[in-house]
């Protein structure tokens, strides 16, 4: 088996974000890490919108990122710590719009290991050195400098190791231009490892240690080490140092040590200051729960600085330090605002705060104020004895704040992120859709969503108005060449033309010079200030002073087709003749003396726009009824001479020549594409060779069932093509590569560009008798998301065999559900406490639900209508029960009546897994599945993590046991059990009498049920332990499995063993077979293995395009959606694997990880080609492309065509 | 019992040949085992390696955070804290 792995949607989770002037312009950008991908974001200061500049796969796992700037420089560089055992310095090159690897220094083994640096990065604020550290012991310091040619240099590493020390965090100190210093938070385990009494463990101290890089001696010394709070977790740099020009200090230098419940200011030989972290004044808040700071950001302004710290609940605190020279007078903390919990915060100089959420959508906020003059209580270290440090082991009295809606920040932009995808289904439920949708259960806690993903671009409609009749075409036009916006909308009807003027309102105008009594074929703003209308009887050239020059068609003929640009007009007559006009220098339209007879009725015509600085475009494409397209010269030397001819499979319905940039073909100049839409709905895209006019590199694509209409439009000031069939598609250039994506909107009959003051980048289209003005806001995205909020973290959802509803279970650990919270509040009220209702009623989506200790759950069952995207019914679970599994079971004892069984457990603890009791709740469907009626619940001894309908009964994985239950009057009745599974059953699949059991740690076992003896027997398992996270059956003997470490693999059972087991009526044979490797008697064989790099949460065997092949689609935790496509021929396998081999040598990973070792992280890659790597072929420089193509005995075009074909025929993307 | 004597033999061989080199390697590569490693030491190393690997893999911290209803920052912190003594104090040493 050979598979081709392709990522349809790259991960969207952001693990870290850094800010800096990476392009060197006076504009700040943000680099975000998506775990395995780097993306450069550019916030627009004016509009407050974020746009992606570039995004690149790095084929490695990014663990840390830091930005730095050399002293006196204007450009920031990014340092990347990854699992490659190498430190990487990246530079963003705005010319080529790509990341360039400036330095790659190897220091250790690959992998996210304990003592190999890469986990933490700290830079000197003056950009003189960087420290890279591991989780334990190893710390390396590199010196950064410039050479004579002002190039960045990096030294060999200096060690700052400390054996047996666990490192919690490191940070660079701001010491001005003195020797660079780093602070590390370390714990030494030497003594606690030696002391059996545990005394040493209890008295182990967490040390704040300073390391100084002596630039003169070129080595690192341990400068200072003092114990600090035992529960410290994070260090924050405090500004310091003196400017050379003045003796004023920027700040006191030192660090903020963020501990559980406290913030401590600390510096060598300086007085400590401590303040408590204020906690929410919420009646249900447990005062003994510790609060830690999870992320922090420091911002320096002219002469001042402040910190924003974020707690694990999402509350932002503003921390300020009052200082006199180097001496700190006080440390102050106050509540700022509440935003989603972030993995990184970035403050931009332009007054924005970028919040890279740890789960769900990311936000850009704009600062309204800095919380300077509000009534928020501020806690200062001066109000405590000895600045809060009189006894560091005793906690300071609790400080409180009242949570409230945003006051200092406003949302400026939101970046959609589907991470985490916890479960998904792929099916086509939406009406009028020919491709299946991906339904995903995403998010965590109260910000969870249920999202419908559809392949296509989102369309934002701004105006929709009804017209008196049904027009067949629409145009917009400017009046003069240098007008910024369009002035007229021209609508062509069967028997007339309507002209509307665009102003404050859109209204009909009469005196435009256009002929209104006939339909229109083409409209063009021509020359400097004239307009042109082509109608069946002639051409009207409307001059600026409203004079009209008209060219009339010879008697008995009409114009059937026309094409125009700023200087040229070609019309085809009903007599199959072509008439060519060109604008002369006086602005007169002149007819070429000869007419060209085509010999076959002309169906479509197209010429390109006039290239900049030229008089004309030299090529005309003509589609004729005899199923050909001919390229005809418009060059003055050879006017109207035929150049080339291409035969088609059906008559052309529309042709469009456009010059578009596609970096895979030509990096620097736009390529001239001839797009030919056929009457059978197929689109051909060919490249027109500008030197000889030949058509090459034909690619085909099926767009829909109607004849295609092609329209050249402007998208973000670049030419693009709208292709209208039974679906509308947009062909455009984004980040230098060509994209072809359907629009998710009603079908258009005709469309055109539209530019007005309110909608400068719009499009206008007609659907039936409705005129619509719309925009395409999110270019570059391939999946449109529609989301619906959920209450808690979704766990699983299933479909129903007959209706279209989805049944979802949700559950959140460590929170109080609304009911439990209400009860608790009632109790408090009875005790006579006054409850701050406003705080209690704060929306949980922003503030979260009240926290509770481990073992407390809030959970519910939800019925979702995916078509309407709304909740039909919600059944909350009481008694601290949480749902973990769900199945629809047709119980044969009830005549096959469908029941919903939900596996729940009460008082569940995650680690080690335990519960007071598990339950199987049985529900009947009522109201056609729109509601549930509770039947009974059956106790189990462990958490039921997997349920499955099996031969009219229920198969349940309860802890280590697989059981089959029959329905009874009062409970489910256990019929048979097998308890010999490794740790816990997490997935069940079935076909026939076979059950595939996925174990949490022990891979997938094949079990069979033998009814005559009522035996449940395991007959085959895997020879490797696997932490199964998702399983799908590919066929009766083959499974596709995803594991917790980001691997996906295919296992197959020998068909002989399969037959033998099926032929054994009682299972006695299996029972007496000898086990192999301490497991089942037979082992499955691994056929394919691949490391995706993201934790796989579901796998489906589906066909994504109508009539297409079945493929495996997987979704991952960080938002990756990918497919595994089986190759159809041996030739393809050879071709693509050879290409992959070449790509491996050509394309080195941005983080310095070897692609082959990354894809074989845990197990060597087997039988899978990395399509993401192959597709980077399109971005290679042209000489490399042709040399690789040459080695493969193909042309570059053929390689690209093959890659595109692999993508489009299987996924449609 | 057999296993113990075998490892003893290995250690004694190394004592004469590569001992100094081995010690150097052990100091350099924390977590590498040796012939006289106790069960507790081995398990502690295993746990520390695992905990460090969890903190080092972004997907695993997300996964645990979702399962446990905690923030990723808290999961990383608790995992790092756990590295100090993941398997409890070492057993009492026999005097022999």
UniProtKB/TrEMBL annotation, chain A:
Residue ranges of every copy of the RSE1/DDB1/CPSF1 second beta-propeller domain listed in the record: 460-776
The keyword Nucleus belongs to this UniProt entry's keyword annotation: yes
Location(s), subcellular: Nucleus
Keyword terms of this UniProt record: mRNA processing, mRNA splicing, Nucleus, Spliceosome
Main location: nucleus
Entry GO MF terms: nucleic acid binding
Signal peptide segment: none
Residues of the RSE1/DDB1/CPSF1 C-terminal domain: 858-1178
Keyword DNA damage appears in the UniProt entry: no
GO cellular component: spliceosomal complex
An example Gene Ontology biological process: mRNA processing
Pfam families documented for this protein: Beta-prop_RSE1_1st (PF10433), Beta-prop_RSE1_2nd (PF23726), CPSF_A (PF03178)
All copies of domain RSE1/DDB1/CPSF1 first beta-propeller, residue ranges: 15-405
Job of this protein: Involved in pre-mRNA splicing and cell cycle control.
Subunit structure, interactors included: Associated with the spliceosome.
Family stated for the protein in its record: Belongs to the RSE1 family.
Protein name: Pre-mRNA-splicing factor RSE1
Source organism of this protein record: Mycena belliarum
UniProtKB/TrEMBL annotation, chain B:
GO biological process, one term: mRNA splicing, via spliceosome
InterPro entries associated with the record: SF3b5/RDS3-10, Splicing_factor_3B_subunit_5
TM region(s), chain numbering: none
GO cellular component, one term: U2 snRNP
Pfam family, one: SF3b10
Entry's family note: Belongs to the SF3B5 family.
Protein name, per record: Splicing factor subunit
């Amino acid at each position: 088996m050979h598979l081709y792995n392709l990522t349809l949607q790259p991960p969207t989770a952001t693990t870290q974000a850094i800010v800096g002037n990476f392009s060197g312009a006076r504009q700040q950008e943000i680099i975000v890490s998506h775990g395995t991908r780097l993306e450069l974001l550019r916030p627009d200061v004016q509009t407050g919108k974020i746009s992606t500049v570039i995004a690149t796969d790095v084929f490695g796992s990014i663990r840390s990122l830091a930005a730095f700037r050399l002293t006196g420089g204007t450009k920031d560089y990014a340092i990347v710590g990854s699992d490659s055992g190498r430190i990487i310095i990246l530079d963003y090159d705005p010319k080529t719009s790509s990341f360039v690897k400036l330095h790659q220094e190897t220091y250790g083994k690959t992998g996210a290991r304990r003592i190999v640096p890469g986990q933490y990065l700290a830079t000197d604020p003056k950009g003189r050195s960087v420290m890279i550290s591991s989780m334990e012991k190893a710390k390396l310091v590199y010196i950064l400098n410039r050479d004579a040619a002002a190039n960045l240099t990096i030294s060999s590493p200096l060690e700052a190791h400390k054996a047996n020390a666990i490192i919690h965090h490191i940070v660079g100190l701001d010491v001005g231009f003195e020797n660079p210093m780093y602070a590390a938070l370390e714990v030494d385990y030497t003594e606690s490892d030696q002391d059996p009494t545990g005394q040493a463990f209890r008295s182990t101290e967490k040390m704040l240690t300073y390391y100084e890089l002596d630039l003169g001696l070129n080595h690192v010394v341990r400068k200072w080490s003092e114990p600090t709070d035992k529960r410290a977790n994070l260090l924050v740099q405090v500004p310091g140092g003196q400017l050379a020009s003045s003796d004023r200090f920027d700040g006191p230098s030192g660090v903020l040590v963020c501990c559980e419940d406290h913030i401590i200011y600390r510096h060598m030989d300086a007085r400590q200051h401590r303040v408590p972290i204020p906690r929410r004044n919420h009646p249900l808040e447990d005062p003994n729960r510790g609060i830690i700071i999870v992320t922090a950001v420091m911002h320096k302004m002219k002469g001042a600085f402040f910190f924003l710290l974020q707690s694990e609940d999402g509350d932002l605190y503003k921390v300020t330090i009052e200082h006199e020279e180097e001496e700190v007078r006080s440390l102050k903390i106050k509540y700022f605002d509440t935003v989603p919990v972030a993995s990184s915060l970035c403050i931009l100089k332009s007054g924005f705060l970028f919040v890279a959420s740890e789960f769900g959508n990311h936000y850009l906020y704009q600062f309204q104020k800095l919380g300077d003059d509000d009534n928020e209580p501020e806690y200062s270290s001066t109000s405590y004895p000895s600045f809060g440090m009189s006894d560091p082991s005793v906690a300071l009295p609790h400080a409180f704040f009242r949570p409230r809606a945003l006051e200092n920040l406003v949302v400026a932009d939101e970046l959609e992120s589907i991470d985490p995808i916890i479960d998904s289904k792929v099916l086509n439920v939406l009406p009028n859709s020919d491709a299946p949708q991906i339904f995903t259960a995403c998010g965590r806690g109260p910000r969870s969503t249920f999202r419908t993903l559809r392949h296509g671009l989102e369309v934002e409609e701004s105006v929709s108005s009804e017209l008196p009749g049904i027009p067949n075409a629409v145009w917009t036009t400017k009046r003069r060449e240098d007008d910024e916006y369009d002035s007229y909308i021209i609508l062509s009807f069967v028997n007339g033309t309507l002209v509307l003027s665009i102003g404050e309102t859109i209204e009909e105008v009469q005196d435009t010079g256009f002929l209104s009594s006939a339909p229109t074929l083409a409209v063009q703003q021509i020359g400097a200030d004239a307009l042109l209308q082509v109608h069946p009887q002639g051409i009207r050239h409307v001059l600026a002073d409203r004079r009209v020059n008209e060219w009339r068609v010879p008697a008995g003929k009409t114009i059937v087709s026309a094409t125009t640009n700023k200087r040229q007009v070609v019309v085809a007559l009903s007599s199959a003749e072509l008439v060519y006009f060109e604008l002369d220098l006086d602005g007169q339209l002149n007819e070429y003396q000869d007419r060209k007879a085509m010999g076959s009725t002309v169906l479509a015509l197209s010429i390109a726009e006039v290239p900049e600085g030229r008089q004309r475009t030299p090529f005309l494409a003509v589609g004729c009824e005899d199923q050909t397209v001919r390229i005809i010269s418009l060059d003055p030397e050879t006017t109207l001479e035929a150049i080339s001819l291409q035969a088609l499979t059906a008559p052309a319905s529309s042709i469009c020549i456009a010059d578009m940039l596609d970096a895979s073909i030509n990096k620097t100049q736009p390529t001239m594409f001839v797009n030919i839409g056929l009457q059978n709905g197929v689109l051909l895209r060919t490249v027109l060779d500008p030197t000889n006019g030949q058509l090459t590199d034909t690619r085909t694509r099926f767009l829909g069932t109607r004849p295609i209409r092609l329209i050249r439009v402007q998208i973000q000031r670049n030419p693009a093509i709208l292709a209208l069939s039974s679906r509308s598609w947009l062909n455009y250039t984004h980040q230098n590569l060509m994209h072809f994506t359907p629009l998710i909107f009603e079908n258009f009959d005709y469309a055109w560009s539209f530019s007005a003051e309110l909608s400068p980048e719009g499009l206008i289209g007609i659907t039936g008798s409705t005129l619509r003005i719309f925009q395409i806001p999110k270019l570059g995205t391939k999946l449109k998301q529609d989301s619906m909020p959920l209450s808690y973290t979704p766990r699983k959802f299933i479909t129903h065999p007959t209706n279209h509803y989805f049944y979802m279970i949700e559950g959140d650990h460590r929170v109080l559900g609304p009911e439990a919270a209400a009860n608790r509040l009632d109790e408090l009220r009875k005790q006579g406490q006054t409850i701050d209702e406003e705080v209690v009623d704060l929306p949980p989506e922003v503030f979260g639900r009240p926290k509770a200790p481990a073992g407390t759950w809030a959970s519910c069952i939800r019925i979702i209508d995916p078509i309407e995207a709304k909740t039909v019914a919600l059944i909350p679970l009481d008694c601290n029960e949480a749902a973990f599994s769900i199945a629809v079971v047709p119980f044969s004892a009830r005549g096959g009546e469908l029941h919903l069984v939900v596996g729940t457990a009460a008082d569940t603890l995650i680690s080690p897994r335990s519960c007071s009791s598990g339950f199987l709740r049985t529900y009947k469907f009522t109201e056609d599945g729109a509601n549930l009626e509770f039947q009974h619940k059956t106790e189990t001894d462990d958490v039921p993590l997997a349920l499955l309908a099996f031969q009219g009964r229920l198969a349940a994985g309860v802890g280590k046991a697989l059981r089959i239950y029959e329905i009874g009057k009062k409970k489910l009745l256990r019929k048979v059990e097998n308890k010999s599974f490794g740790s816990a059953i997490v997935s069940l699949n079935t076909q026939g009498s076979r059950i595939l059991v996925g174990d949490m740690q022990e891979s997938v076992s094949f079990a069979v049920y033998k009814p005559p003896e009522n035996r449940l027997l395991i007959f085959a398992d895997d020879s490797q332990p696997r932490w199964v996270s998702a399983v799908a059956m590919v066929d009766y003997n083959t499974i596709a499995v995803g594991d917790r470490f980001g691997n996906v693999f295919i296992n197959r059972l020998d068909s002989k063993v399969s037959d033998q087991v099926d032929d054994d009526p009682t299972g006695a044979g299996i029972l007496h077979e000898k086990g192999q490797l301490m497991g089942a008697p037979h082992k499955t064989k691994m056929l394919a293995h691949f490391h995706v790099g993201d934790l796989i949460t579901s796998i489906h065997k589906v066909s994504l395009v109508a009539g297409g092949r079945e493929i495996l689609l997987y979704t991952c935790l960080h938002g990756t959606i990918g497919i595994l496509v089986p190759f159809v021929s041996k030739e393809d396998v050879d071709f693509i694997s050879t290409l992959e081999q070449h790509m491996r040598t050509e394309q080195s990973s941005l983080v310095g990880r070897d692609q082959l070792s990354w894809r074989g992280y845990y197990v060597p890659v087997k039988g899978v080609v990395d399509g993401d790597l192959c597709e980077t072929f399109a971005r290679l420089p042209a000489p490399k492309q042709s040399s690789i193509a040459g080695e493969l005995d193909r042309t570059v075009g053929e390689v690209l065509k093959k890659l595109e074909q692999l993508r489009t025929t299987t996924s449609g993307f | 019992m057999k296993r113990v004597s075998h490892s003893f033999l290995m250690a004694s061989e190394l004592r004469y040949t590569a001992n100094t080199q081995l010690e150097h390697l052990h100091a350099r590569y924390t977590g590498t085992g040796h012939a006289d490693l106790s069960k507790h030491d081995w398990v502690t190393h295993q746990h520390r390696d695992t905990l460090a690997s969890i903190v080092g893999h972004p997907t695993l911290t997300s996964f645990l955070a979702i399962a446990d209803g905690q923030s990723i920052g808290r999961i990383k912190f608790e995992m790092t804290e756990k590295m100090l003594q993941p398997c409890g104090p070492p057993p009492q040493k026999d005097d022999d």
